[in-house]
Each structure stands twice: as structure tokens, then as C-alpha cells.
Design brief:
Layout lengths: L31 H8 L3 H6 L6 H6 L18 E3 L9 E6 L9 H14 L8 E5 L3 H13 L2 E7 L4 H9 L3 E5 L11 H11 L3 E3 L7 H17 L6 E4 L5 H13 L4 E7 L4 H7 L27 E7 L1 H15 L5 H16 L5 E6 L13 H6 L33 H11 L3 E6 L2 E7 H8 L20 E2 L5 H9 L4 E5 L2 E6 L1 H12 L1
Parallel strand pairs: 2-10, 3-4, 3-6, 4-5, 7-8, 7-10, 8-9, 13-14
Antiparallel strand pairs: 1-2, 11-12, 14-15
């Protein structure tokens, strides 16, 4: 593992050890968006700015015309070195696209595609922006479109994180969720659904990132030049994923002009067909993968993969584990696709025998994946988090006592507290523990029975409503006993004289069987 100095580089700054860029004067070093902001501040605005507006002023202020200020924050993202992960003899840098205002690299193409559509007369005032998206392109489009006053309708596959969907709705986008288990040509495939939606909405414009030339153009004209200046014109490899192919294609075009011979490296989720296509020119049926935003079951029309020199296939398990490792080691909270890119970048770096300077991306912020990548029970349910097996019923428990994952109440807690914990954890029953020992079980029916249609009973202690006579199964009980318990409509309580281990629900059993099948 090599040491490197801390670098936080934005467009206009070069990394230490790189040739210092020359500027004719200080003004040339100011980012264009900052110049624009300074020029739009009049003397009158400056003289009156000392009086802060009241809430009433804010509510009744007339809307201002002109370019929304948030759009000037897109791009100019930092480049930072990886210091605490093993990069072999190489230097590895991360471009933090998570610092865009919409939280991802897709803000760039959202701005590029919408403003091109406006110039070309394809998107008129009062129109609707339609797109098929894995979430981030939709967020980038929604950010730009809503700032400009357009309606937004998006079609997203059902494997997208809840955080993305909630954020899209918060921006005012209409979200149409469709199946993620069907391929191109099926009426429920997300791109086919979006194409049909355009026909149903008057004044609609289909962004169509998979065919829109302004997608790769955004990276050719902004992302590439930023990286080139930030590394001081010293770069040997770029590691990219492919969703639509815009990032890889745009960067390939830019670096072909300024750095011929650059290694373009593809990071592809296991299940995607793109690595096979790069290496053989052909591909078979696609599999499935949990990583969001990259990987495909076809070759996107705008994707130019001819410059890819190396391709790495990264499993979901490695992608998610690498994203988590990045947060622990470097303090950078990133999404699942970043885990894929970083895992491939680390493999590439460790395979080199001579030092190279390598750049990849933090594609989006990890705050969109707290319920997935950074959620241990979800990771376990998906088979992405390995833990010690016992060879008995304890292996079926999603939230184990030994992991500190059990959500419980004490007999003295109020029913209001119990109900709040059920809602927070999205469970319908809670073990009642005293000093770590099981003394009862409380479920939704117990709560409802205690209420007597009177909300004042939420102040009652749990012990008044809980079931005291709880049937338990020891860990070594046969699976047939567990199934019999679940068929009665009961949750299985796994406990013995040594203590309480956890609960097993019908969903837990089904998930256990599913993981065994996969």
C-alpha cells in the first residue's frame, strides 16, 4: 500500500506533482459559473442584501426569470486520492460525482440533453420530459426540468432503491414503476414502457439517454476536460461502468484526442453481457444483478466500446462489499455502482507491474442506498452478507440477537413505544425481553385488542397486552417443526434455556429457500 498526499482538486486545480497550469491572469482561473454569479449581482442588490427577507416576503416574492442558479453547480467536481486501500504500485483517484447538486454523475447529461432539446425546439414551454431510468438519470433530468418548469414522467425498474423513488417524487416527478425481470421487447420493459408513455402525453419529449448524442457529448466536453486538467495531463487509465454508455463513450472520444493510448477499463456487473461483448464480439443471455445503474442485457446504441482494453466482471457481493469498505477506509459514502467501479479499479491497479495513474468515479451518493448497501438485514436477505452458519434454525433468523439486530421491547415500555418500533423496523411483532430473557411476545393483534378503540391505552405498559404463553423452538429442532409452527399462522420463536436467539417468519423461510435455489 502506497502513501500519497491528501488532494482535494476541483476543475482549475492540478494535483500535487503535476505541471502547474498557466493562466493569463487571475480572472481566467475563476470557474465560469462563478463569474456568472458575480456578474448578476447588481449594486442595488448588494446594498439591500443586509436586510434578510421575512417568511412572508419569501411567500409573496415574484418569481425571477433567467437560468436557475442550481444548474451552475453541476460539474466542477473534486478529484481525491485513494490512500487507505491497497492500490499496488499505482495511484488511484476518485472523481466525486456525488458532489453534483442532484447527487450523481447523471446531472451532467440531464442538463446537456434538456438544453439541447430546448435549442432544437423539441422541448417547448409547458412540455413534459419522459425517460426510462435506473434512477440517477431520472434525478438529473428531474432536477433540471423542474428547475426550468417542465413536467417530468419517469419509468423505473422495480429493483430501484426506495430512496431514489422518494427523491424523484419529492422533486415533483411522476414515477411509473415497472418490472426488472423482463428484457427489451417486452411491453413491461422500462424503455418500452417509456416509449409508449411519450405517445400518450401531449407535448412530451423522450430524453432517450440510450440514443441521445448529447449524453456522451456532456462527458466529452465537461467530464473529460475536468479530469485532464485535475491530473495535470498525467493519466494512464480510466475505469468506467456502462449503463447507457455515455460516460465511457464521451471520455473515450476526449482522451483519444489528448491522450492516445490511455487504457479504458470496463467495470461490468456479473450477469451483464458487456464484458463478453468486449472480449468476443458476441454475447448470450443476460443474468440478473442487484447493482443499480450499470450493466446491460444489450449493447446500448450510443455505447462505443471499441476503445476498451480491459474488462472486469464484478459480482454483486464484491461490489457491495467494496462500497462498504470505501466508506470505512476513506469516509466516502457511495452507491453500489461505485463499488463495482472501485473493485475493478483495484484489480487493475494490483495487476500492474509499473506505476500508473488511474481515475474512476464515485458515481453517486450512498445516501440513496442506506436501505440496501448499508443495511445488514437487507444484505443478508439478498445473500450478499456472509455470516457464521450454525447448521440449525438459527441460520434462518434475519435479525439475530448475537448480531445486536433484534428489535425488542421490555415489559415496562409503553404500547406507544412498541408501536413506534414496529413501524420503524417494518415488523408486525416484537419479542418482549427482560435482562436478555424472553418473557413474552407482542404483535399487532395484541395491540389492537388492548386499545378498545381508545387511544389513551397507548400509554399502557407492554406487559398488559403481550402474550405470556409463547411457544418456542430450540435451535436444533427439525425444519418440519418450524414449518408446522408457521402454518398455524404463528411466528417461530427460536429460544432455549441459554437464551433467546431471534424470530423466524414465513418470509424468512421463503427467503432461505430462495437463496438455496440460487
Amino acid at each position: 500500500m502506497r502513501e500519497s498526499r491528501l488532494v482535494l482538486s476541483r476543475f482549475g486545480d492540478s494535483l500535487p506533482g503535476s505541471p502547474a497550469p498557466s493562466y493569463p491572469d487571475a480572472a481566467a482561473h475563476i470557474h465560469p459559473t462563478r463569474i456568472k454569479k458575480e456578474r448578476t449581482m447588481s449594486a442595488t442588490e448588494t446594498s439591500t442584501s443586509s436586510a434578510p427577507p421575512t417568511s412572508a416576503d419569501a411567500q409573496h416574492a415574484a418569481p425571477r426569470s433567467g437560468r436557475p442558479a442550481v444548474l451552475d453547480l453541476i460539474g466542477n467536481t473534486p478529484l481525491v486520492p485513494v490512500r487507505r486501500l491497497d492500490t499496488g504500485c499505482c495511484e488511484l483517484f476518485l472523481k466525486l460525482e456525488s458532489q453534483n447538486p442532484g447527487g450523481s454523475i447523471k446531472d451532467r447529461i440531464g442538463l446537456s440533453m434538456i438544453e439541447a432539446a430546448e435549442r432544437d425546439g423539441l422541448l417547448q414551454p409547458g412540455g413534459t420530459v419522459v425517460e426510462a431510468t435506473a434512477g440517477n438519470t431520472g434525478l438529473g433530468l428531474a432536477l433540471v426540468a423542474r428547475a426550468k418548469g417542465y413536467r417530468v414522467a419517469l419509468v423505473v425498474p422495480d429493483k430501484m432503491s426506495a430512496e431514489k423513488v422518494l427523491q424523484l417524487k419529492a422533486l415533483g416527478a411522476e414515477v411509473h414503476i415497472t418490472r426488472s425481470d423482463v428484457g427489451k421487447g417486452h411491453p413491461d420493459y422500462y424503455q418500452d414502457r417509456a416509449a409508449k408513455l411519450v405517445l400518450d402525453l401531449p407535448g412530451a419529449w423522450y430524453a432517450d439517454q440510450f440514443n441521445n448524442p448529447n449524453n456522451p457529448l456532456a462527458h466529452e466536453t465537461t467530464t473529460g476536460p475536468e479530469i485532464w486538467q485535475q491530473v495535470g495531463h498525467r493519466i494512464d487509465a480510466m475505469v468506467c461502468g456502462v449503463g447507457s454508455g455515455g460516460t465511457l463513450t464521451g471520455l473515450s472520444r476526449f482522451f483519444a484526442k489528448v491522450r492516445p493510448g490511455l487504457d479504458m477499463v470496463l467495470a461490468d456487473p456479473a450477469g451483464s453481457i458487456l464484458k463478453d461483448y468486449v472480449e468476443t464480439g458476441t454475447y448470450g443471455d443476460a443474468g440478473s444483478w442487484a447493482v443499480e445503474g450499470i450493466g446491460e442485457d444489450f449493447v446500448p446504441p450510443i455505447a462505443d466500446l471499441s476503445g476498451v482494453r480491459h474488462a472486469y466482471r464484478i459480482t454483486d457481493e464484491e461490489s457491495f462489499a467494496t462500497a462498504r469498505a470505501l466508506y470505512k477506509a476513506e469516509g466516502i459514502l457511495a452507491g453500489s455502482s461505485t463499488g463495482t467501479l472501485l473493485a475493478a479499479a483495484l484489480q487493475y491497479c494490483r495487476a500492474q507491474t509499473t506505476p500508473k495513474r488511474v481515475v474512476t468515479f464515485v458515481c453517486d451518493t450512498g445516501t440513496r442506498y442506506l436501505s440496501k448497501v448499508y443495511n445488514d438485514p437487507w444484505m443478508f436477505d439478498q445473500g450478499l452478507l456472509k455470516r457464521t452458519t450454525q447448521g440449525d434454525l438459527r441460520d434462518l433468523i434475519a435479525r439475530r440477537t448475537e448480531d445486536g439486530a433484534v428489535v425488542s421491547v421490555s415489559p415496562e415500555d409503553t404500547l406507544s413505544t412498541a408501536f413506534a418500533r414496529m413501524r420503524q423496523a417494518e415488523v408486525s411483532q416484537l419479542p418482549v425481553l427482560r435482562d436478555g430473557r424472553l418473557v413474552g411476545l407482542l404483535d399487532e393483534s395484541d395491540l389492537l385488542a388492548q386499545m378498545h378503540m381508545d387511544a389513551r391505552h397507548f400509554k399502557d405498559p407492554v406487559e398488559r397486552a403481550m402474550s405470556h404463553d409463547v411457544q418456542t423452538l430450540p435451535p436444533h429442532a427439525p425444519l418440519s417443526d418450524l414449518i408446522a409452527q408457521l402454518r398455524k399462522g404463528l411466528v417461530a420463536v427460536i429460544a432455549d434455556d441459554r437464551g433467546f436467539y431471534g424470530l423466524v417468519t414465513r418470509f424468512d423461510l421463503l427467503n432461505h429457500l430462495r437463496k438455496g435455489l440460487s
